[in-house]
């Protein structure tokens, strides 16, 4: 790796909600920047005004904030290379397009849309597989390479619309070293004469991207594999602009595939496959009907940002050990581009859930209590923060998402009215019922501070002994009578949280109903 200061950038286009793959790209950039003591930059690439979507930029910002990716330079924070929105940098790019023309690496093209269509049709008719404006076809088009100089000048003077295209060499091998893929070699005949500047004077992605990466002194370009085909063109641009020596190092990340591996995970897959493909919920509009749409987000689905980050980090990278749990600081410590794989990564949402369960369990009860309190509030149930913390404390081993707390822990707040029939059929009988009645009578008053799980258990054991029963014969019936459910967290912890008065009352109610 070169000696220059490490400066990386995440460069999204605000054309819609940031896809989860984009979050992974941002994360890998961030991990490398932090690992190498570098700078993390965010640049908004909004040169394509037709695809601009209101709210997308703010959404990108919030998504990154939520997962904990900090930006050192950005449109919102500023920095030494401001502005960081390409639309606000428009005047910067012209000079470089002019330089390329002056040096013979680019040219003016005056072709009308009809002329371009006609060219494509001609090529299609001649069975050319991929009709393009390139080193061969440009010789038959209306551009400053084919027109006499004075005619070109006259067209320019008359304000005729034109684009500026890169003059890709006819027969040349373009090579560059990708940090993930090794040497990439592409023949220039496979590269078309891309438009660098549009007729409205706006640069295209390709020109703006290279100019900005150069001016912003970017050392590493880490981006998705879908940009690999553009890289040879970018290499040519660096060369022709005289910047090859400081060209950033490229690292094209592996594709993210659908869970079954049948293709690239797309923005539309989320709804189809039943899991979110966005970090945050997105409120958009259906491009066809104009109707408002809502797309699910990991945050709203109950994922903790730590879990999503850990999951995303492993989609294409691994530490080379069996350790799977990594906090952000641990990821920074362990991360290296060398360990990023070039093979595509399958998006396995079950793994994301597994991570979520892990991080949920690791969270202090007091931090999880607000989720339960919010749900209780919605149901008009009052509860102290302390009790909510106790409940989530015993329940967190049993849920995957914070919103499950209410569903799973309802019985802490509402006495059951129905009982698990399978357990009743197997475990309930007159003797068990009588024993539970005796237990209800034996329980100390609610106010008794020593009525903790252990005390409740020993009273239970003693009562059962006196009733001539083994505890194992009654335990499940006790659970069903008190909670309605056949399974749950530690039973005597549950009873202790409920309080002895409530437990006794529930046992008596169950005996009345079940006999
Ligand atoms: N604006 C491009 C995008 O939307 C950035 C590609 C790159 O990183 O060069 O992904």
Automatic annotation (TrEMBL):
It catalyses: tRNA(Glu) + L-glutamate + ATP = L-glutamyl-tRNA(Glu) + AMP + diphosphate. One of its GO terms (molecular function) is zinc ion binding. It is an enzyme of class 6 (ligase). Residues 6-273, 297-354 form the Glutamyl/glutaminyl-tRNA synthetase class Ib catalytic domain. PROSITE patterns: AA_TRNA_LIGASE_I. Residues 372-510 form the Aminoacyl-tRNA synthetase class I anticodon-binding domain. It comes from the Bacteria. ATP binds at residue 267. It is found in: Cytoplasm. A motif ('HIGH' region) lies at residues 12-22. Gene3D superfamilies: 1.10.10.350, HUPs. Pfam families: Anticodon_2, tRNA-synt_1c. Its EC number is 6.1.1.17. Keywords: Aminoacyl-tRNA synthetase, ATP-binding, Cytoplasm, Ligase, Nucleotide-binding, Protein biosynthesis. A motif ('KMSKS' region) lies at residues 264-268. The keyword RNA-binding does not apply. GO terms for biological process: glutamyl-tRNA aminoacylation. GO terms for cellular component: cytosol. The keyword Translocase does not apply. Catalyzes the attachment of glutamate to tRNA(Glu) in a two-step reaction: glutamate is first activated by ATP to form Glu-AMP and then transferred to the acceptor end of tRNA(Glu). Belongs to the class-I aminoacyl-tRNA synthetase family. Glutamate--tRNA ligase type 1 subfamily. PANTHER family: GLUTAMATE--TRNA LIGASE, GLUTAMATE--TRNA LIGASE, MITOCHONDRIAL-RELATED. Monomer. HAMAP family: Glu_tRNA_synth_type1. This is Glutamate--tRNA ligase. It comes from Hymenobacter polaris. The lineage of its organism: Bacteria, Pseudomonadati, Bacteroidota, Cytophagia, Cytophagales.
